[in-house]
Design brief:
mainly alpha; 2 strands; 7 helices; Arc Repressor Mutant, subunit A; about 180 residues; 2 domains; two-stranded antiparallel sheet
Length: about 180
């Protein structure tokens, strides 16, 4: 009986004591699993399928078929991520290097109406960044260093202990690598 209560008070991801016992994960593991996780799954899906040019609709299908995804993804969520990273593309276009997401417009055939189709592909710098994201995830760290408002995520000593215990559990194979991603 006491072991069941202790298991409920400990986080299943890091094994440390939870701040709020009614929540499924501790605060650190929740932040780690949600902060930047949507873009991480999108970029993994693009890379795993050959890193070709895809439309937004094709990317939604790829992300929904990806094994690391837990919930269905809508078109506007994928578009917002692509738009955010392709806006960086406009800034780097001036200096002609550092492209994150490559964007290509395909014009319609003669006589067809409507906007041209826009296709997206990962740039070389974003592929390198994706490898860093995967390494951070394996070491028990959050994917993003910065939060939405630009504030830096502060790692306290308690959070370092949690990251180390996650890394040890992953190396031992106690649970799947992306089990607590987007939970």
């Amino acid at each position: 009986m006491d072991s069941d209560v202790a298991q409920q008070q400990n986080c299943p991801s890091c094994g440390q004591e939870k701040e709020r016992p009614e929540k499924p994960l501790c605060e650190y593991c929740y932040i780690r699993g949600t902060l930047g996780a949507a873009k991480f799954v999108l970029f993994q899906a693009m890379r795993d399928n050959g890193n070709q040019y895809y439309t937004v609709e094709e990317l939604v299908e790829l992300v929904n078929a990806h094994p690391n995804k837990k919930h269905p993804v809508k078109r506007d969520a994928v578009y917002k991520i692509l738009h955010r990273y392709s806006s960086q593309y406009e800034y780097s276009k001036k200096r002609k290097k550092g492209y994150l997401i490559l964007k290509k417009s395909i014009k319609r055939k003669k006589g067809q109406r409507g906007r041209p189709k826009v296709k997206y592909k990962l740039g070389a710098n974003l592929l390198k960044r994706l490898e860093k994201y995967e390494d951070r995830w394996k070491y028990g760290l959050p994917i993003n260093i910065r939060t939405k408002n630009g504030d830096k995520f502060r790692m306290s000593l308690n959070y370092n202990n949690r990251a180390n215990s996650i890394s040890i559990k992953l190396r031992k194979g106690e649970y799947e690598l992306y089990e607590y991603l987007l939970t």
